[in-house]
């Protein structure tokens, strides 16, 4: 399997796309800055959100039991899933119970994490994503590249080609208005014909047993309100204690994500309509393990706004697919190693550690510090790059011995002068983006001994 560097190199071959991707996401980051500066108590809001989430994580078991109790009393069927496999099996069992073979789904990164679409397709269930960006990447048979802007890596001309192939729009059509109307007609039929709808959960309120789904397109509402069965998939960290806390997070979420004052639709679901069913699946899938890792516990505060991706210089220039995990970017690079440290060992190293992600995080997650800590854990556990680890050991030995350091310095200068091809060749990744400096005639120590002693 290719790692982040190899996948980023493939993305970087199209320089125009990289520039456009970089500039587009930076434009979104600037919108976030303007929106946040319009709220005088922005920093107090961030601190309040961080503390509320801290409170939840410190007593998660009790809050989950409180939520379950109230949700059941509201008439919601509550399920518990230890991992992705159990989650997918629960969804399938609900659909089988009602003999449903087609389902409409709104955007849910948890279901991406669980690979639900692929699983249901193998079981003969047709799933249609109703978020416009999710629909585009589904038709393109690609995973989302961004948690808020799933097809931000695609240009409108490419989307026109996809719609022409799958939805019958005119060949060469790239007008966003016409493409949106094409998708709307397709989805209208889907909403009217599906008997089951699945949504994600942005926030679940422990004191009332209700949950809130935020969308800009209203697609979650259309699916849930027209279907007989509503299934909601929720990571167990999405809880907040009381309804009054929603105001804190709803003010932060979309301002951080896209610079909007608030999400267009913030829909509250508390109980099923008469004659209909509502299910909620509470999914762990590694979150309890992360909760037990003190250094990484704060990552569970994430409200999935994507602000850290929009500001990250590495993400903006390497593309979301280079992270080869459902949640890309800085926050994904913290969450993924918790699921599989070996498979995602490369991701904490896909960062400059500049701290910009931490500065924009609405719930004050110390993202860049956790990335640095993951690097240390991964190296200690033996999942780091073997060649780099050996090189670092050699460097540590050299720097710890003045005699060895002097000999190595002389040898290095001789090689760079008489055999430069040993350094400036395509096998040396350091040299790919750099010019070889002039070889110094002597070391600083030799110069100092000659001129200052």
Describe the structure.
With about 450 residues, the chain is an alpha/beta fold. It is about 50% helix and about 10% strand. It has helices at about 5-10, 15-35, 40-60, 60-75, 85-95, 110-115, 115-120, 130-140, 155-165, 175-195, 220-225, 245-255, 285-290, 305-310, 315-320, 330-340, 355-360, 365-380, 385-400, 400-420, 445-450; strands at about 75-80, 100-105, 125-130, 195-200, 205, 210-215, 230-235, 240, 265-270, 275-285. The strands form two sheets. It has a six-stranded parallel β-sheet, sandwiched between helices. A four-stranded mixed β-sheet has the order 8-5-6-9. Helix 9 (about 155-165) packs across helix 10. The mean pLDDT is about 95.
Cα-to-Cα separation, first versus last residue: 56 Å
List the quaternary state of the chains.
single chain
Total strands: the figure is 10
Lateral strand order in the biggest sheet: 1-10-7-4-2-3
The helicity comes to 40-55%
Structural class: alpha/beta
The low-pLDDT segments are none
- Radius of gyration over alpha carbons? 25 Å
- Main beta sheet: strand number and arrangement? 6 strands, parallel
What is the average of the pLDDT values? 94
Counting DSSP H or I runs of 4 or more residues, the number of helices is 21
Beta-strand residue fraction: 5-15%
Overall outline: globular
């Amino acid at each position: 399997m290719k790692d982040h560097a190899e996948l980023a190199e493939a993305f970087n071959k199209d320089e125009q796309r990289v520039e456009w991707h970089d500039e587009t996401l930076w434009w979104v980051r600037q919108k976030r800055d303007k929106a946040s500066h319009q709220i005088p108590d922005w920093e107090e809001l961030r601190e309040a959100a961080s503390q509320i989430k801290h409170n939840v994580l410190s007593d998660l078991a009790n809050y989950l039991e409180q939520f379950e109790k109230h949700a059941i009393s509201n008439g919601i069927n509550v399920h518990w899933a230890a991992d992705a496999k159990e989650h997918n099996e629960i969804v399938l069992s609900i659909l089988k119970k009602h003999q449903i073979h087609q389902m409409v789904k709104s955007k849910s990164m948890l279901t991406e994490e669980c690979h639900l679409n692929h699983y249901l397709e193998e079981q003969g269930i047709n799933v249609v994503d109703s978020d416009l960006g999710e629909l585009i990447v589904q038709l393109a048979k690609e995973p989302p590249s961004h948690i808020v802007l799933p097809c931000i890596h695609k240009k409108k001309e490419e989307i026109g080609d996809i719609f022409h192939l799958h939805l019958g729009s005119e060949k060469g059509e790239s007008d966003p208005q016409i493409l949106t109307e094409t998708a709307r007609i397709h989805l209208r039929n889907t909403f009217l014909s599906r008997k089951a709808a699945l949504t994600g959960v942005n926030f679940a309120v422990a004191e009332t047993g209700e949950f809130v789904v935020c969308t800009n397109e209203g697609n979650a509402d259309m699916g849930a309100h027209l279907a007989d069965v509503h299934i909601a998939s929720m990571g167990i960290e999405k809880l907040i204690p009381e309804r009054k806390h929603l105001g804190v997070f709803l003010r932060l979420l979309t301002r951080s994500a896209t610079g909007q004052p608030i999400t267009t639709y913030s829909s509250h679901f508390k109980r099923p309509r008469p004659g209909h069913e509502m299910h909620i699946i509470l999914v762990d899938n590694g979150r309890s393990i992360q909760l037990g890792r003190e250094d990484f516990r704060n990552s569970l505060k994430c409200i999935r706004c994507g602000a850290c991706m929009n500001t990250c210089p590495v993400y903006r220039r390497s593309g979301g697919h280079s992270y080869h995990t459902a949640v890309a970017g800085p926050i994904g690079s913290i969450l993924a190693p918790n699921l599989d440290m070996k498979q995602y060992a490369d991701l904490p190293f896909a960062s400059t550690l500049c701290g910009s992600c931490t500065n924009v995080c609405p719930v004050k997650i110390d993202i860049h510090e956790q990335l640095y800590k993951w690097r240390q854990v991964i190296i200690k556990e033996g999942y780091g790059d073997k060649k780099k680890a050996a090189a670092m050991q050699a460097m540590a030995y050299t720097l710890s011995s003045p005699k060895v350091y002097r000999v190595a310095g002389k040898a290095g200068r001789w090689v760079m002068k008489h055999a430069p091809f040993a350094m400036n060749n395509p096998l040396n990744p350091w040299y790919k983006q750099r010019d070889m400096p002039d070889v110094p005639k002597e070391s600083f120590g030799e110069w100092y001994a000659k001129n200052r002693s």
